[in-house]
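Input:
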Amino acid sequence: MRMNTYPDVIVIGAGLSGLTAAWQLAARGHRVRLITKGWGATHWHSGCIDVLGYFPIGNTPPVSLPRETLATLIANMPEHPYALVGIERLEAALDAFATLCHDAGYPLHGSLDSQWLLPSAVGAFRPTCLAPETMMAGDLSRHDREPMLIVGFERLNDFYPELIAANLIKQGHLARGTLVETPTLRRQKAINTLVLARLFEQATFRAEFIAAVKPKLGKAERVGIPAVLGFDNALAIKAELEKAFDRPIFEIPTVPPSVPGMRLHRILTRAIERAGGDIRTGMQVVAADTKGDRVTTIWTEAAARRVPHHADTFVLATGGILGGGITTTYTGEVREVVFGLPVNAPTDRMAWLYRDVLDERGHPIFRAGIRVNSSFRPLDGETPRYTNVHVIGTTLDGCEPLRERSFEGIAIATGFAVQDALPTTNHSTSA
Amino acid sequence: MFVEQTLDNCIKCNICVTECPVAAVTDKFPGPKYEGPQAARFRQPNQPLTDWSVDYCSGCRVCNMVCPTGVRIAEINARARAEMVRKGAFGWRTRLRNNLLARSELLGKVGHPIAPLANALLQNPLGRLAAEMTLGIARHAPLPTFSRERFTAWYRAHQPANAPKGKVVYFHGCSTEYYEPRVGRAAVRVLEANGFDVIIPPQHCCGLPLLSNGEFDAARNYHRRNVNSLVEYARQGIPIVGTSTSCTLTLKEEAPELLDAFDEESRLVAERTFDLSEFLLNLHTRGELNTEFRSIDLRAVYHPPCQYRAHRVGRPSLELLRLIPGLDIVESHAACCGIAGTYGFKAEKYEIAMQVGQPLFDLVRATGGPIAICDSETCRWQITHGSGVPSVHPMELLALAYGYEPEGVLQQQTL
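Output:
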């Protein structure tokens, strides 16, 4: 393993885009240092890769053929991150990511030519492009006549099987909800997704769970449970339960902490370290030194003083207004927190939000982002502000990841594509 | 930002809970989010204590390192424990036990002159059983043995080398002074191999064990005395380096932050304090490190202590060790060894500490090297206790690579 005392690339931020960029760059021979304040969006997201759920945004049915709709989007929105990346590179990014997960024993399934409709933790449907194998049997578009049993756990907050079932029934599916408890769970002081995921890694608990659910199966032809089937052996655990139930089972993503999101996080961080990348957490960037149109050094907060980090290239993956990469002040300023890059956002504070919190137009402040050129260099007017800074992920302007349901797609696509904008490396390559 | 103010940054995302090594093995501690920012909202003046479980926080700071919004969770918990102590929530027996464990300087002063007797007592199974039953000091926990010679006695007799690079203050800490003077000898040799004149001013316990037991008043006293002793050097711009990552973290940040010691002198000392590996790596980035290392053919696990990660300077020891030819370092990604200073020595927490450390013990055993490497003394003792593999400080290997005679366990290796 290489050590990165002298990195040539520093990636700032450890959400899905930063992790993807660090993994790809390290695998291609760059000496990568990933600097992050803490872990991020991977622990919050569903563990599925949403590429494009809705377009145009509004009261429309979900996208059913992402490839076709992406072509329309790209033609209509030349500043959208997908337009910068292009369908070819988007598909290459998804392939690379799926291969990584497959090789880690945690396959993702799907493609740009179809869309999964998977149940959410309130029983709504979620359009998504790549889904882990543990969630596939929940598909609402293809198995809609197979009755479902939704199983929850006593005292697990924010996962209510009867609510999920009721909402599924409203959408024309057959579903029933039930809560289970086991002797081990009764002894637990607190129940959350982590506790359950750790318990599912134990054979004795799985046996208890099987015994508790089996009598309740009835006419159900598939079983949905919260996404807690362990961290590293989810597939094997799923297979064991399916054998016992003689029915397919599927995971439903939960509110944070999201176990399927953590699985992807582990796969990515291991890939980065395997490729020689150096991950540093607890480091918040507090200042940057520049020389002309280049950033030379960033400074991170540390015990008693600041610490400098030098590199040739900096990849900014700190997220948007939700991730903390962009922030606002009471005086109406919208700021990019690391380099103070110009943010495309309404300058009038009153224009940030509409009066109605669920306004169908979507609040303008959530579209705040950094405009970039085709090599992801941040623009000041029409020229790059810095030539060795590249901005990726949901820090970018021109998209609305929440309402488009394009969060992970944009993160992975831009995290993958940014390598093309970097000078090629002559370090040893071991991809 | 002050410690308590940071709790307003908490967005309840639970990331800290996902990484907490204690919550992963026991439900006596539900997790940092619940005990830290959430419970802190109820810890108001004239309000009853919220919950005992905060005392099961080991203070490893893994939560701080992964929090995406900068909440100082471990410090919030440390202050909550101090408030419990202040309010008399702990019985006299617990406080006596905690003070015995936490007053490392006092222990050293008392135990060292009678080292053979003290060692015999401390390693005697019957004595240990009695200590567990009466005081709650875990009978299997890895208590160190007093060394025959104090580190500073060796230093006074030591003939300094030529020192063209100027002066460095060495903060050796209690464990080097009373238990493992070989670490201090290695540090002095490494600094001298780089042309420094090593100064060792009078010094006291850094106060960290007291801080993590909620005994803030006693800790404040020690910190003040250290600052008084060190500030003159700091004013002259002389770096203060240490080999105990927890001592240096305390001087840099923990004591000022937890004790609200924001005076100019504390700040000066903090700013001039470095972990020794951090200091040497800084030399290396300036091209000033002596890199004439002889080869050490050895494969070993290096575990960066939680206290070192909390410095937020990366893994300088790892980078230094990788400069030594022949040395094949396996980096530990384990969250914590479990001991967390005095935590794993307590009877009610011993099992938790052992379970927390299990993945690390497994890695050390699986790697199968003759030694493991770690910067922090209590972590080294715990690693050896849990894995059966002797542990050394990185400076011991650096000193060996500079051609000094090996000491301790390194002596028994054919390197």
